[in-house]
Amino acid sequence: MNKKSLIAALALLAAASSPALADEYGRHPFYLHALSDLRTAAWQVDHRRPEDGRVSSDEMLVLDEIHAAIGDLQHAAWLDGKPVEWREPTDAWLPREGRLHAAIDLLRKVRSDVAREEDDPRARPFQQRGLAHVDVALNAAQHAIGDVRHHDMRRE
Fold this sequence. Notes:
The chain is mainly alpha-helical. Helix content is 69%, strand content 0%. The chain is built from five helices and no strands. Helix 2 (30-46) runs antiparallel to helix 3. The longest helix is centred in the last third of the chain and has 32 residues, at 124-155. It is elongated, with a radius of gyration of 21 Å.
């Protein structure tokens, strides 16, 4: 093989592999970050302390909506060529106020990550449904915090 053929083959190989690099999970990791943050938010809601009292219906709704959002966003990420089995570290620092506050912070971060422009029309419906689930989870978590505050005031 002569030098010109080798250079042409290398150029062809580089051109053929550049579209694969565009889907590399490190370049546009928003779905992966969001999925990691959703899993952490679910853990925060699910792991109660004994002094937290009984599980409210709002907390159950938060968990259900987070799991639904995970399903939709995993599908959107898969359509976007992301390795959904990859586990990104959580972005958000967890506040000291409590587990529901931590879940709200994480859900807000998820909303920010996922609300970016999606250029794949096949993934858009899953992205939008995932965002809708995140919004319902956020509202339910805020309502649950209100219930906890109301319950705490009644005990005083």
